[in-house]
Amino acid sequence: MNILFASSEVAPFAKSGGLGDVGAALPRALAAAGHDVRVVMPMYSRVHAQGRTFTEVVPAMWLDLGGTHVKVSLYESVLPGTTVPVYFVRCPPLYDRPSLYGNGPDEHLRFAVLSWAALKACQALRFAPDVIHCNDWQTALIPLLLRARFSWDRLFENTRTVLTIHNLGHQGTFPASVMPQTGLADSWYLFHQDELRAGRLGFLMTGLLYANAITTVSPTYAKEIQTPSQGVGLDGILRQRADVLTGILNGIDEDEWNPANDKHLPVGFSAEALTGKDTCKQALLAAAKLPYRRDVPVFSLVARLVWQKGIDLVESTLPNLLRHHRFQLVVLGKGEHKHEEFFRLLERAFPGKVAYDSAFSERRAHLVEAGSDVFLMPSRYEPCGLNQMYSLRYGTVPLVHKTGGLADTVWQYNPRTGRGTGFVFDHFDEAGLSWAIRRALEVWGTGTGEYRARWEALMRNGMVLPLGWKHRVGRYLEVYQKLR
Ligand code: ADP
Question: Which amino acid residue places its CA nearest to atom 2 of ligand 1?
């Protein structure tokens, strides 16, 4: 199949979270399965700041979005480790900014342009996609554009669209007055009319109305988003479209996240040979300037420090536990100022026990995964989550709230049977989280002898799970095939 994968993030070029990882790994897996995949994304300043070389493939494409004339050009590179072409939409006034997203007055224009440019690129390169795979609100106008603006072109005769929801919390909702700059003003009647009357225009909502198929990143999240409590206002539309909505778990990039061969680690380790993990623990604690004690468990957290990730719950629960129990805490995360401040204070309040790093560092994230014993992921909601899967692979036992993809990937450990892969709490409150942490500490015990043997068995339960994209890509192909 010919597949165009349109995304606002593709690692390593640009990534702010899980979308960036998926934006690279899924196209890679589709290409490995023998398909002609091409990726399209914006050329943010960080993309060309990294000393890479790009070939200009289309010097100039002019877009007229309701009288706003935008000139874009197209550059090409490849997805590292593959021959998958990546097309970069270059438009310095829109994309040359320090952060990927912003709250500026032209945010709608930035991604309307991306969506237009993705289709124009197909025309310029004579690439006839069977599937255009759109991701989140930033590329969600493509299905409607295809129908209202590009259907005259026989190039798109067999093109079907798939829209993947990576996080329903981000919908790209703008004042209805931005309509002309979507380039779709003539087709105003095709937008959701109640929304327009209420003065709003939602990119994601529009995509949900017109995509031929909708997917989201875990089966549990696919159910949750159809309920009023977790549908963030779109549950009605999602229920209407339930017949084309599928939940497919994300995979992990097993080359990038492989404890046996990880360029970011001092030594490798695996389910069969675990000793290297302890060396990684020493390296992590040295880097975090914490004392190392083999029998003291290290809990860790790597996340965007935002409401979704349950950081407020960590803040209200952890101090008391740190006061009364023997464990260390390593936090790597950037995000809301108040949360960053909290962890700075916590570090000062618990010297030798807590370390906080506010960097965004791929290298450090790998070391944290490798060198810690328990990984905290008490997300309020979690469409899929990648870190709990990296943790499973690295023998770092995940401790999660039973929601979304966390509920689909982590099974409650039962010390009696030895089955299970982590610690799971049902109720998103202090009692729930502290129950799970106490339970993890109980199972850890003295961290030696029989306790250690049991812990290692628990680690191995997770380390051997099939989590790679090669196990998931078939589900996407099924969705694509059904559209033909
Ligand atoms: P989300 O997409 O909601 O941020 P995921 O768990 O799906 O959550 O993916 C998060 C990704 O971002 C992981 O690859 C994680 O390692 C990475 N990440 C988050 N914060 C940092 C950080 N401060 N430094 C390095 N990587 C980070």
Answer: 18
pLDDT in tens, 422-469: 999 999 999 999 999 999 999 999 999 999 999 999 999 999 999 999
User: Among 29, 31, 28, 11, which Cα is nearest to 20's?
Assistant: 11
Q: What pLDDT is stored for residue 189 in this prediction?
A: 98
Question: Does ligand 1 lie within 6 Å of residue 17's CB atom?
Answer: yes
Residue 55 has pLDDT above 90, yes or no: yes
Ligand 1 in reach of 301 Cβ (< 6 A): no
Q: Distance from the CA of 394 to the center of ligand 1, in angstroms?
A: 16
β-pairing, 173-175 with 160-165?
Answer: unpaired
18 lines ligand 1 (CB under 6 A): yes
What is the position in ligand 1's atom list of the atom closest to the CA of 333? 23
Q: Is residue 264 part of a domain?
A: no
- CA–centroid distance, residue 155 to ligand 1 (Å): 38
- What is the Å distance from ligand 1's center to 333 Cα? 8
**pLDDT category of residue 51 using cuts at 50, 70 and 90:** confident
CATH number at residue 246: 3.40.50.2000
- Given a cut of 90, whether residue 49 has pLDDT beyond it is no
Pocket lining: 304 vs ligand 1, CB cutoff 6 Å: yes
Domain limits for position 328: 275-466
Two tokens, residue 40: 């399209």
CA gap 398, 409 in Å, rounded: 10
Report field, pTM of the whole predicted structure over 0.70 = yes
The reply to whether 27 and 146 lie within a common domain is yes
Question: In b/e form, how buried is each residue of 73-83, taking b as 16+ CB within 10 angstroms?
Answer: bbbbbebeebe
Whether residue 224 sits in one domain with residue 301 = no
pLDDT score at 362:
92
Give the three-class secondary structure for 27.
helix
Domains: count for the chain = 2
Q: Evaluate whether residue 53 is within a structural domain.
A: yes
The neighbouring-strand residues paired with 301 are 331
